[in-house]
Amino acid sequence: MLPGRGPNGRAAATRLSRLLGTRTSWTQVGDGEFFCPGCGGDRNYQRLTGHRRFALFGVPVLPRGETGPVVECAACRRHFGTDVLDHPTTTRFSAMLRDAVHTVALAVLAAGGTCSRASLETATAAVRAAGFDDCTEEQLAALVEALEADTGRFTGEPCAAGLAIELHEALDPLAPHLAAPGRESILLQGARIALADGPYTPAERDALTTVGAALTICSDDVTRLLAAARTPS
């Protein structure tokens, strides 16, 4: 049997690790709330940096350099790389999704040119389903009017730079955290709002193309989805 193999070898290795080894002392440098991959939900965390030391008989004696930083979950105590903080919490993700649907609805209504009752009803239903439970048709119509007044833009015009920026601000941070069906669902909601009062106008199609680009949906898929939305299910 080779040295270090078998029960005796493992026992010897265990004894050696107790005599010689590396110990890490952690220092907290921040905290907050994050989505813990280990727990599968929102948890508090501590951001830690560590100093490694060579240990003899369990006593740190020589520095071995720094390690980390890491993120430690306050619940499961597991350590993760700091890139885990790039993932939004469940609460933050819900707010991002709600705001995205609201912004898309306003953009499509503004592009429609009329804010017809059918479009307002469809838009209100989408915004309510996204989380704005108290949204009304009157509120959306007033917001579209305020948007026009603020930008100097009239309904029915192509997607202006300011509106395109708003769409990208709402959708760009969300897109990486949505699977393809989720991104397509947001675009289709906008398409249904546009189609509620008739075929797409050029301005509505332009706005929806901007939505698709912000959601990182390729142009061919945007064309396919907009065509599919016209087909009664």
UniProtKB/TrEMBL annotation:
InterPro entries reported for this sequence: DjlA_N, TerB-like
Domain Co-chaperone DjlA N-terminal: 99-224
The organism's place on the tree of life at top rank: Bacteria
Stated name of the protein: TerB family tellurite resistance protein
Organism per entry: Streptomyces virens
